[in-house]
């Protein structure tokens, strides 16, 4: 009948549809996957999505003394990286019946500390952190008090926490082999100042592998003040005037600044220099026939962070912190 109230889906409905017991569904929702095959896990996940089942968070909280809320702190909410990461986290949390509390640190260690303490006050079960990198000892102390952390994309100097990030070494090697294979003779790496672990790691890998593909010293150019970007670009062009050369950017923001500077100086790609870089944001397929990029598994990084957190919350900790590297994809387009 029109206007009839839809019957609320229960855990019993999910169990019946998936062909498993109510206990199995409960164990799935709490991240307890021992003795559960991957096929069963996927079937349960599909049924939960199909039926639109949402666990009763209040009832679960009262029973288990957990809030079923995860804190998520990103370093820059304005970066296209962040909403993709957050969607992966949110979608995976939905499957486990968790909600998320989101904060933006603006890459400021003080804000990061304040948000962590605020989330602890709100009784989150754990925190997924895209860290500023300036709070290593604070994170150690907070973890010693019992808070669970999983690091997304960025690492810290102390090997304390599970970390999920892209397989940057493999990706850089793949890009360098490609550039060498299509005839480039020199490559310059353009990056913002090395103020976080991702930038540091990519720059270090570039320096380490450069000599395996090209002659001469690895060239690194820093994009600091925007008003000096043109000077940096002109230095690169002068230094490589006698070779077929390419620019390799460290992330999508660096790519945007390089494209803007090339436009301002009237430098064409790929005619005058090749252009490629990390991040495959939507606009990059629309510029000058498309930019060659390394597509990062950002959505999957978010999902894997949640899975690691579920493991921490529901199993006794054994062994060393785990580092998960997810593969990237080379997208070849007109710019090279």
TrEMBL record:
Coiled coil: none annotated. GO terms for molecular function: DNA-binding transcription factor activity; transcription cis-regulatory region binding. SUPFAM superfamilies: lambda repressor-like DNA-binding domains (SSF47413), Periplasmic binding protein-like I (SSF53822). Residues 9-64 form the HTH lacI-type domain. SMART domains: HTH_LACI. Keywords: DNA-binding, Transcription, Transcription regulation. CDD domains: HTH_LacI (cd01392), PBP1_RegR_EndR_KdgR-like (cd06283). Residues 5-32 form the HTH cro/C1-type domain. This is LacI family transcriptional regulator.
């Amino acid at each position: 009948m029109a206007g009839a109230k839809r019957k609320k889906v229960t855990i019993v409905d999910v169990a019946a549809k998936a062909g498993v017991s109510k206990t199995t569904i409960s164990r799935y929702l709490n991240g307890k996957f021992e003795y559960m095959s991957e096929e069963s896990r996927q079937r349960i996940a599909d049924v939960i999505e199909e039926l639109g089942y949402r666990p009763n968070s209040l009832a679960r909280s009262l029973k288990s003394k957990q809030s079923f809320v995860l804190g998520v702190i990103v370093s820059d909410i304005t970066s296209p990286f962040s909403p993709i990461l957050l969607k992966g986290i949110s979608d995976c949390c939905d499957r486990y019946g968790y909600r998320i509390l989101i904060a933006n640190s603006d890459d400021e260690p003080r804000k990061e500390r304040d948000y962590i303490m605020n989330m602890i006050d709100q009784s989150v079960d754990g925190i997924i952190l895209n860290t500023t990198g300036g709070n290593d000892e604070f994170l150690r102390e907070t973890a010693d008090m019992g808070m669970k952390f999983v690091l997304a994309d960025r690492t810290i100097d102390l090997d304390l926490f599970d970390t999920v990030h892209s397989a940057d070494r493999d990706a850089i090697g793949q890009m360098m082999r490609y550039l060498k294979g299509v005839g480039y003779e020199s490559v310059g790496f353009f990056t913002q100042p090395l103020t976080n672990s991702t930038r540091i790691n990519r720059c270090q890998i570039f320096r380490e592998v450069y000599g395996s593909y090209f002659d001469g010293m690895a060239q690194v150019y820093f994009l600091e003040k925007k008003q000096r970007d043109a000077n940096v670009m002109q230095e690169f062009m002068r230094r490589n005037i006698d070779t077929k050369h390419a620019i390799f950017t460290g992330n999508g923001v660096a790519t945007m600044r390089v494209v803007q500077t090339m436009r301002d100086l009237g430098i064409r790609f790929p005619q005058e220099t090749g252009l490629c870089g990390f991040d495959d944001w939507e606009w990059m397929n629309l510029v000058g026939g498309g930019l060659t990029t390394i597509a990062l598994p950002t959505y999957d990084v978010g999902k894997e962070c949640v899975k690691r957190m579920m493991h921490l919350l529901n199993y006794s900790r054994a062994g060393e912190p785990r580092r998960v590297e997810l593969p990237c994809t080379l997208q070849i387009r007109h710019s090279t």
